[in-house]
């Protein structure tokens, strides 16, 4: 079906499923119509068509997130609207709506520059950066949202506008931290940093060392400068030929770390991880920033899964012991459990204020549990929810009650969304939403309703 300058896909059309299902295959979007714009004019036309027809709008690039209730309405799939323009003299990049981080990293690396990408190279730039964005350089440079200079936005009334800190300070503040609640983003300008290489890598430790290793990692973090960013992941690995033999079928602790400082200093700092014991695999080296995704080696194939996350004000030995009992080896439905060390530049306010909340948190805690299919039985979902609740209970002594916008996951409730912001920030966001999207057209997301 063609309407003015846009082609629309309906249920039953050959490419309907391909365009609605992203990386997260559980509970996919079920729109009445799908638009796949290839330029900003077509993107604008799609928004105007939806508003004239009274349709709510969902937006998806790579589909790593889970938008919750999405039956009906218009899905704007931005995967065809891609492109990166590097301005090496200004150390900036202009990034189109559907662009992935691997495209930006590769283009910037040609000039010895780096964008604040996340761990997974296949994630879309826009939703990651505007939801906050915590990656391997986070403690050195801060949230990705702190380094967005301009945003081209199409609002609910179909108007295309370029917003900056000067042109519309309130809207610029809100979009950097609250994502796509205020319009469809056609592109953003991000800052780049002179980081052609870094020192980093990962270590894998066997099951008996998980609890003591996590405690040692926590103690090691207290010695680190802001140049070092680190995560610890407890992960049950399948017994598959694609994995290195030492890791097959193991429940392991993976310590990942990067440093933007001199390699000799980083090498000395990272020796402290040797106190954990002998690793099964891994090591640290100087590597080009373009190879940063090799540190985590996150999956690139779509899959069904459920994610939950929270923020912590710290850790201690008792909490670590409870965590291993609830989510470690031998626990029911053990999740992939990731703890990200925060602080450093993440704890400091940015030069231009934005809506990213909870900068005082010490860690993020994220749980991912794979599902048997994209349409699992309710009994399976109940077991997954129970396993995640047990993990949250184990962390309760240090749970701040806050959440991070990009780690909400598909089970996020309205209360979870609200918990990503301080009360005064939430009030300001809802009032602004009432100004720019009073009908809540952009509600198929981690939604901020109009006041």
Structural class: alpha+beta
Termini separation comes to: 36 Å
The portion of residues forming beta strands comes to 15-25%
Biggest pleated-sheet summary: 7 strands, antiparallel
Biggest sheet, spatial arrangement of strands: 14-11-13-12-16-17-15
Helix content: 25-40%
Shape: globular
In the predicted model, the low-confidence regions spanning at least 5 consecutive residues are none
Figure out the total of helices. 12
Question: What's the rounded overall pLDDT mean?
Answer: 93
Helix and strand sequence: EEHEHEEEEHHHEEHEEHEEHEEHEEHHH
> Over the alpha carbons, how many angstroms does the gyration radius reach?
21 Å
Q: How many strand elements?
A: 17
Provide an overview of this structure.
- With 451 residues, the chain is α+β, with helices and mostly antiparallel strands.
- Helices cover 25% and strands 23% of the residues.
- The protein has helices spanning 16-20, 40-52, 101-109, 125-130, 138-141, 169-178, 210-221, 263-270, 317-327, 378-394, 414-418, 423-436, and strands spanning 2-3, 6-9, 33-35, 57-60, 74-77, 84-87, 92-96, 148-154, 160-163, 184-191, 197-205, 228-236, 251-259, 281-288, 305-312, 336-341, 363-370.
- The strands form three sheets. Strands 14-11-13-12-16-17-15 form a seven-stranded antiparallel sheet.
- The chain is globular, with a radius of gyration of 21 Å.
- It starts with a strand and ends in a 15-residue tail after the last helix.
């Amino acid at each position: 079906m063609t309407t003015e300058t846009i082609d629309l896909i309906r249920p039953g059309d050959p490419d309907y499923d391909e365009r609605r299902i992203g990386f997260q295959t559980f509970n996919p979007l079920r729109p009445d119509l799908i638009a796949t714009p290839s330029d900003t004019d077509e993107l604008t036309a799609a928004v105007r068509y939806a508003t004239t027809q009274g349709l709510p709008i969902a937006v998806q690039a790579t589909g790593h997130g889970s938008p919750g209730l999405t039956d009906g309405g218009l899905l704007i799939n931005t995967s065809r609207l891609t492109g990166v323009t590097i301005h090496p003299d200004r150390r900036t990049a202009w990034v189109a709506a559907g662009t992935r981080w691997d495209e930006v990293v590769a283009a910037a690396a040609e000039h010895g520059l780096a964008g604040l990408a996340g761990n997974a190279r296949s994630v879309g730039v826009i939703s990651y950066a505007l939801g906050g964005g915590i990656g391997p350089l986070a403690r050195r440079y801060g949230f990705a949202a702190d380094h967005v200079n301009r945003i081209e936005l199409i609002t609910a009334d179909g108007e295309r506008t370029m917003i900056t800190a000067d042109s519309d300070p309130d809207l610029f503040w809100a979009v950097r931290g609250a994502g796509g609640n205020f319009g469809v983003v056609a592109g953003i300008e991000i800052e780049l940093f002179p980081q052609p290489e870094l020192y980093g890598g990962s270590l894998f430790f066997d099951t008996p060392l998980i609890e003591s290793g996590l405690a040692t990692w926590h103690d090691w973090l207290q010695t680190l400068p802001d140049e070092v960013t680190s995560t610890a992941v407890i992960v049950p690995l399948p017994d598959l030929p694609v994995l290195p033999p030492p890791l097959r079928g193991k429940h392991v602790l993976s310590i990942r770390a990067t440093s933007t400082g001199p390699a000799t200093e980083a090498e000395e700092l990272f020796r402290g991880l040797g106190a954990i014991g002998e690793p099964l695999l891994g090591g640290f080296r100087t590597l080009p920033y373009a190879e940063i995704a090799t540190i985590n080696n996150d999956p690139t194939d779509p899959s069904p899964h459920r994610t939950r996350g929270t923020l912590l004000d710290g850790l201690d030995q008792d909490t670590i012991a409870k965590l291993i009992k609830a989510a470690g080896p031998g626990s029911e439905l053990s999740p992939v459990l990731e703890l990200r060390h925060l602080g450093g530049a993440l704890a400091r306010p940015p030069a231009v204020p934005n809506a990213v909340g909870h900068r005082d948190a010490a860690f993020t805690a994220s749980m991912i549990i794979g599902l048997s299919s994209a349409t699992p039985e309710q009994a399976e979902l109940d077991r997954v929810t129970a396993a995640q609740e047990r993990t949250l209970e184990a962390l309760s002594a240090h749970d701040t009650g806050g959440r991070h916008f990009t780690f909400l996951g598909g089970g996020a409730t309205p209360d979870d969304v609200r918990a990503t912001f301080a009360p005064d920030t939430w009030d300001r966001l809802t009032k602004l939403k009432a100004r720019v999207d009073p009908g809540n057209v952009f509600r198929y997301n981690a939604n901020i309703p109009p006041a």
